Amino acid sequence: MNDWAPIAKEYDPLKAGSIDGTDEEPHDRAIWRAMLARYVPNKGVTGDPHLTLFVARLNLQTTEEKLKEVFSRYGDIRKIRLVRDLVTGFSKGYAFIEYKEERALLKAHRDANRLVIDQHEIFVDFELERTLKGWIPRRLGGGFGGKKESGQLRFGGRDRPFRKPINLPNMKNDFYGEGSAETRNWSREGTRDWRTRDRDHERSRDKRWPERERSWAWGESERERDSKEERSRGRERKDRDRKDRDRDRSRERDTKKQRDDDKHR
To answer: What is the SS3 string spanning the chain?
Structure first.
C-alpha cells in the first residue's frame, strides 16, 4: 500500500478492474480473460514508443491532415498513424502520433487532452502498448477507461485514475503536487473530481454519525422514530378533521332549527 499512486506504474488486470486498485477477486469475466491472456505487442509497429501519443475518441471523418494541422502546433511530428479497418478502410476513431522531441510530446500530452476536433472531444495519453509493463488491450478484457453502461470500467489510467483507499494514510507522491510541472498538471486534471467527492462524503458521514449514536442510545432506529412521528402527525390531522366536521354539523343544525322557528312564527 505504501507505493499506491492514482496512475498505474505496471498493468495488472485485477487492479485495473478495481476502483481503488485493492480488489483480490475479479468481478467480471473480462478480467478473468485479461488475467489469462498472453499478449505480445505488435512487432510490426515502428517508431519510438516513448515519443508517441495515443489519440482516441476521434470523429470517424477526421483525417491525417486534420490531425497534423492540430498537433503540429506543439512541435515537429515524425509520423501520424490513423488506425483504419483493414476491409472497409474507414477510420476506427483513434491514432498514434510520434514526435521528434520529448518536449513537444509532453506539451501535447498536457494541452491537447479534451480538445474538440470536428465536433468530438478527444482523449490523449502516452502510448501504453509498448511502454507499460504487462499491458493487455481492451479487446482481451484489459485496457483503461471504458463506459459505465458496459459494467466493465477499468481504472488506473489518465481517464479514470484509482481512487484513494479509505484506510490509506496521507502520503506524498508526484501525482499530488511533487515532481515536474508536466506531471503535476495532467495528473491533477483527472483526479480533482474524485478527491473532492471523497472529501465531501467523509464530511457528510461525520455529520450524520452523532445523530445515529443518539438514536441507538435511545434504543430505537431513525426509521422507527420517523415512523412514530409520522403516525402521531397523522392522528393529529384526523382529530382536527373530525372536530371541523362536528363543528360544521352543529352549525347546520342550528341554522335549520332557526329557519323552522321562523316558519312557525
So the answer is: CCCCCCCCCCCCHHHHCCCCCCCCCCCCHHHHHHHHCCCCCCCCCCCCHHHEEEEECCCCCCCHHHHHHHHHHHCCEEEEEEEECCCCCCEEEEEEEEECCHHHHHHHHHHCCCCEECCEECEEEECCCCCCCCCCCHHHCCCCECCHHHCCCECCCCCCCCCCCCCCCCCCCHHHCCCCHHHHHHHHHHHHHHHHHHHHHHHHHHHHHHHHHHHHHCCCCHHHHHHHHHHHHHHHHHHHHHHHHHHHHHHHHHHHHHHHHHHHC
